[in-house]
Amino acid sequence: MFATMTSPFVYEEPVKAEALADRGDELRLLVDRALDARNSRIEGARRYGKTSLLRAVLSAAGKDGAIPIEVGFLGCVTAADVAERIERAYGAQLDSRLRRWYEGLVRTLNPTISAAPGGVGVTARPGISAPGLLDRLALPRRLYERTGRLCVIAFDEFQEVVRIDAALPGVFRSELEGHGEAAAYVFSGSHPGLMQELFSDRRHAFFAQAAPVNLGPLPPDELADYLVERFSSGKRDPGEALGPLLDTAEGHPQRAMLLAHHVYERLEAGETADFEIWMDAFGAARREALAEIHVLWESGTSLERRALKVIAQRNLALGSREADRRYGLSKGGSAQAAVDRLFRDGHLIEDRGTRTGWRIADPFLAYWLREM
Ligand SMILES: Nc1ncnc2c1ncn2[C@@H]1O[C@H](COP(=O)(O)OP(=O)(O)O)[C@@H](O)[C@H]1O
Ligand SMILES: [Mg+2]
């Protein structure tokens, strides 16, 4: 048999509540609000730990007597998909006693797919008035009637709901705003632009009242403690790799874990990393991220690519002569529009330390751009 020496660093899926670095303040705030039946939303760049934090909130709320339910909407393209996703989440996550009751209840609900609108050439928005969806959104009220317990519901990747139809958030609001003591919602999503639009729109007072909790980069001191503790639990020492790892990751949680994993893998119990091990691990981590960087690059417009190149340099200003000369990004509205789009899509975070005022959220993409 092979000896298993799996590293303690998770970088391919959300981390368990007990393995979260930092985020203690955010967690307490979100749990307090949820147990108080108030709604919140988590903002943050891709892979900054939104889903991990949502799960930690649910697990804490569950220990406090609430009924936790997580619904991720990624991949939903119709209101019927959304309704089904919610139905399945309850089916999979309710404890066994409630699940038996739920199995019966679910059969009394309107079907998730409503009958097609009649008539030739009718192009009604499919399922926006879906009674099947409303029934599933109302489940916390049914649970409250039955148990008197609060549901804490995480709606993750909520931008998908916004994308399906501009009217769909209104359907959610019409049901959810009546939930009072029955439910607290925590929303999150990986498209900052769509999320911000929805949650700051005055016409959607319900969403605007969900207090934002912003996830920034992990602070280097917290991250260092976290990494060192995990290395030493495995009888390893990050040694000369620790400093460059912290600098390279720039507080990006997933990149930090990816790098730590590759350093750890190169050590036997009792060993300490040297600079050579760091360079080797860094190379391997970058190779692992390359395919995804290529996909992202392919998906950008030529203006977005130019803007990314300028921002990656850090010491060039948007609209500067040098930015135009080197990267063909001339002054004007279109460059600004490209930057706005990149921000809305979650590729940029604000950074006062650079000439553009932005930095690229993924430090690996920034390295790649500086080398190309
Ligand atoms: N607080 C944290 N502590 C440790 N690792 C984290 C933390 N936040 C995020 N990560 C890392 O980032 C990866 C992505 O986390 P995830 O919760 O899926 O982010 P998001 O939902 O924002 O895309 C995880 O696999 C984990 O490696
Ligand atoms: Mg996520």
Describe this structure in words.
The protein has 372 residues and is of the alpha/beta class. The chain has three domains: 23-215, P-loop containing nucleotide triphosphate hydrolases (Rossmann fold, 3-Layer(aba) Sandwich); 220-297; 300-371, Arc Repressor Mutant, subunit A, CATH 1.10.10.10. 53% of the residues lie in helices and 9% in strands. The protein contains 18 helices and seven strands. It has helices at 24-35, 50-63, 79-93, 96-106, 131-137, 139-147, 159-164, 168-176, 192-200, 205-208, 220-233, 242-249, 253-265, 275-299, 302-313, 321-327, 333-344, 363-371, and strands at 40-44, 67-72, 151-156, 183-188, 211-215, 348-350, 358-360. The strands form two sheets. A five-stranded parallel beta sheet has the order 2-3-4-1-5, sandwiched between helices. Strands 6-7 form a two-stranded antiparallel ribbon. Strand 6 (348-350) and strand 7 form a beta hairpin. Helix 3 (79-93) runs antiparallel to helix 4 (96-106) and helix 15 crosses helix 17 (333-344). The longest helix is centred in the last third of the chain and has 25 residues, at 275-299. It is globular and about 60 Å long. The two termini are 44 Å apart. Mean pLDDT is 93; it is low at 118-123. It binds adenosine-5'-diphosphate and magnesium ion.
